Automatic annotation (TrEMBL):
Protein species of origin: Shouchella xiaoxiensis
Record EC number: 2.7.1.148
Biological role stated in the UniProt entry: Catalyzes the phosphorylation of the position 2 hydroxy group of 4-diphosphocytidyl-2C-methyl-D-erythritol.
Pfam families given in the database record: GHMP_kinases_C, GHMP_kinases_N
Cited InterPro entries: GHMP_kinase_C_dom (IPR013750), GHMP_kinase_C_sf (IPR036554), GHMP_kinase_N_dom (IPR006204), IspE (IPR004424), Ribosomal_Su5_D2-typ_SF (IPR020568), Ribsml_uS5_D2-typ_fold_subgr (IPR014721)
Gene3D superfamilies reported for this sequence: 3.30.230.10, GHMP kinase, C-terminal domain (3.30.70.890)
Record protein name field: 4-diphosphocytidyl-2-C-methyl-D-erythritol kinase
Active-site annotation: K10, D136
Pathway annotation: Isoprenoid biosynthesis; isopentenyl diphosphate biosynthesis via DXP pathway; isopentenyl diphosphate from 1-deoxy-D-xylulose 5-phosphate: step 3/6
């Protein structure tokens, strides 16, 4: 028995850090949405009970450090599953990029194994399990567009943004999420306006969404890596309607309303970055070709 699942990347339309908690995490308020750039996760049943992982990119760990491995190990232990699984991950999402690639692979693995191992868990139960692997995994289980609070694991669905193009550009540096949160001075951080962004989504108001893009972590990463600022400036100069760094970075995304501008921005940035992608936002009304509502291919 085999399953293939799409594991899409996320971007943060807004990210506010409210306070540092006693457990070392930060209390956040973020609006996240999925984009149509996805890894592919293939699951094949193993009757010997073992869990194994292979990844198309050799530098991504394929042992217990892999988030997809951790998802399988968590389900196997919690539900005393006899079977095992071989997980093959075809990476398309840039790694350590602020796009939640590993978290999305974990979420896809949870959803796929729920079918493969016939566990009968609800999406809410899978999202709760996902939070044990990482703060972004719960959102990736639900997908779509959502408000995430707590340390990122409390999810409330929101309307999708209006149809937009997204150009993603990742400079050739990796950023540690832990270091970026660690470098933030919460009391000095500029706040965004989550309430107004939610209203803009309800109103399908692209101009308001552009003006309300906000990421508290951006200043920290920009200080550590000035090249991220240069990519932001170039993306704006080539014609993006609005630009922001996603998550803890270093990927910069540009939102673009007019399709005619996308090629110019994409080609312009290719001169500076190897990893550039022009994709669409995934809207909840869109059906991904050849997939069901769980992203199963
Ligand atoms: C930056 C974002 O990607 C935005 O969506 C997330 O907030 C981070 O999510 P993530 O990568 O799944 O993060 P985790 O793997 O849970 O945590 C990595 C590290 O980031 C820091 N961290 C993460 C989430 C959070 N709300 N506060 C934190 O301070 C902690 O030091 C933690 O040890
Ligand atoms: N399936 C996976 N895909 C990519 N990286 C993984 C995976 N599993 C574990 N990792 C490890 O996790 C680290 C972070 O990778 P990932 O691509 O998830 O970062 P990210 O996009 O910045 O995440 P986030 O946006 O959630 O903070 C990598 O350096 C890699 O060693």
């Amino acid at each position: 028995m085999k399953y293939s699942i799409k594991a899409p990347a996320k971007i943060n339309l807004s990210l506010d850090v409210l306070k540092k908690r006693d457990d070392g995490y930060h209390e956040v308020e973020m609006i996240m949405t999925m984009v149509d750039l996805a890894d592919r996760v293939d699951l094949a049943l193993r009757v010997d009970g073992k869990i194994s992982v292979d990844v198309s990119e050799g530098f991504v760990p394929s042992d217990e450090r892999n988030f997809a491995y951790q998802a399988a190990a968590l389900l196997k232990k919690r539900f005393r599953v006899r079977h095992g699984v071989h997980i093959y991950i075809t990476k398309r999402i840039p790694v350590a990029a602020g796009l939640a690639g590993g978290s999305s692979d974990a979420a896809a693995t949870l959803k796929g194994l729920n079918q493969l191992w016939e566990l009968g868990l609800s999406l809410d139960e899978l999202a709760e399990l996902g939070a044990e692997i990482g703060s972004d995994v719960s959102f990736c289980v639900y997908g779509g567009t959502a408000l995430a609070t707590g340390r990122g694991e409390r999810i409330e669905a929101l309307p999708s943004p209006p149809p937009l193009w997204v150009v993603l550009a990742k400079p050739p540096i990796g950023v540690s999420t832990k270091d970026v949160y660690g470098g933030l001075k919460v009391d000095k951080a500029k706040p965004g306006n989550t309430k107004a962004m939610i209203e803009a989504l309800h109103n399908q108001d692209a101009q308001a969404i552009f003006s309300l893009l906000h990421n508290t972590l951006e200043d920290v990463t920009l200080r550590l890596h000035p090249e991220v600022k240069r990519i932001k400036e170039q993306m704006k100069r080539f014609g993006a309607d609005a630009v922001l760094m996603s998550g803890s970075g270093p990927t910069v995304f540009g939102l673009v309303e007019k399709e005619s501008r996308v090629n110019r921005i994409y080609n312009g940035l290719r001169g500076f970055c190897d990893e550039v992608h022009a994709v669409r936002l995934i809207r909840s009304s869109d059906t991904c070709p050849n997939t069901d509502e769980n992203g199963m291919l």
